[in-house]
């Protein structure tokens, strides 16, 4: 902690800096006289004082003189001297750098005059104002990582502003009472995958690329946002077409998912055993590591969902059973014809199925849901549909009039939008007993293990 005598010394040194030549010497001498201090100052040097304000003598009894550094003090310790702009003083010492008037400083501590390397601005020097560094300190040369003793002062004596491109190290603030805080110009990368800001699941919101003849076999459909994110990765949705159908027969479903921010691949067909869905994921994983691909570094292979219609639903649940990268499956008008395959989906994953009240898949979908023992699962029925050839919502209801529920599910399960849980789980959510937006009829759903 600086003594009162040191405050007087700084005042006198500051006054000397504000003058020049003999006037500076006279002003310094007068200031020392006014405070009752030794007045043997000479040009560029001042007496070294101990903590009681007495002159320090060497072994021969001569008064020790030190260089006049005229360093500025903290505002609360400088007798209310106003330095104006709050910036460091431009007063380099004869060595080409600024020296702080503190313990361990040549202006105050005799031990700092070449005998203790740590007192030359090194790691053990104590500081209360970090706007100065020693000339020749490696930290100011750009060769060493920034240490707590570095500052916004450059080795040329000019102050560098935080974020100045000319200053190649982050600015650091430091004090004797708290740890230094490093300022970074880099922005924090947002968490989670990229999704459109508009959370309405009834349509796509982003401009997309929609391409046929893609994928590992050149027969898949690929759709994704035209402007891929530079700060977040994109989740993946694999879409499986119904038996005998092509992925291009489901353009609205694929475009809606891509328009929400997902990278979507519609596989050429759905064998129902999961192997083509897994092949598509393998292909996207290679694209993600290919420096020449538009997807290089853009995909999150831990956020993969599978969905599909009829046989495509079976392809989806089998991919969830067999591939650890798939974390959720959502079936459209589908269901295992045996005793139910949801039982085989790991409990760390999720599964859901939407089906029509009059569709041929209804009993299979219910059986699949009932088979889930620990796996979080949902089944949602579309009821009170238009009196068409099937007498209500039938086998094609999910991928067309009901596609919003697949989008909502993927935003929830892949995108982490936890607020959507209330739409599926409980007694009064949108997909539990709400109306089907834009269409006749209602959702009737239930979930378990969430």
Averaged pLDDT: 73
| Percentage of residues in strands | 15-25%
As a whole number of angstroms, the C-alpha radius of gyration is 37 Å
Spatial ordering of strands, largest sheet: 5-6-8-7-9-10-11-12-13
- Regions with little confidence, pLDDT below 50 for 5+ residues: 1-44, 69-189
- Please, what is the oligomeric state? single chain
User: Outline, from the CA principal axes?
Assistant: elongated
Task: Please work out how many helical segments DSSP would assign.
Answer: 9
- SSE string: HHEEEEEEEHEHEHEEHEHHHE
Largest sheet: 9 strands, mixed
Quickly give the structural class: alpha/beta
Number of strands: 13
Taking the alpha carbons of the first and last residues, their distance comes to 61 Å
Query: What share of the residues lie within helices?
Result: 10-25%
What do you see in this structure?
- The protein contains nine helices and 13 strands.
- It starts with a helix and ends with a strand.
- By secondary structure, the chain is of the alpha/beta class.
- The strands form three sheets. Strands 5-6-8-7-9-10-11-12-13 form a nine-stranded mixed beta sheet, sandwiched between helices. Strands 1-2 form a two-stranded antiparallel sheet. A two-stranded antiparallel sheet has the order 3-4.
- Helix 1 (about 5-15) runs antiparallel to helix 2 (about 20-35), helix 3 (about 250-260) runs parallel beside helix 7 and helix 4 crosses helix 5 (about 310-320).
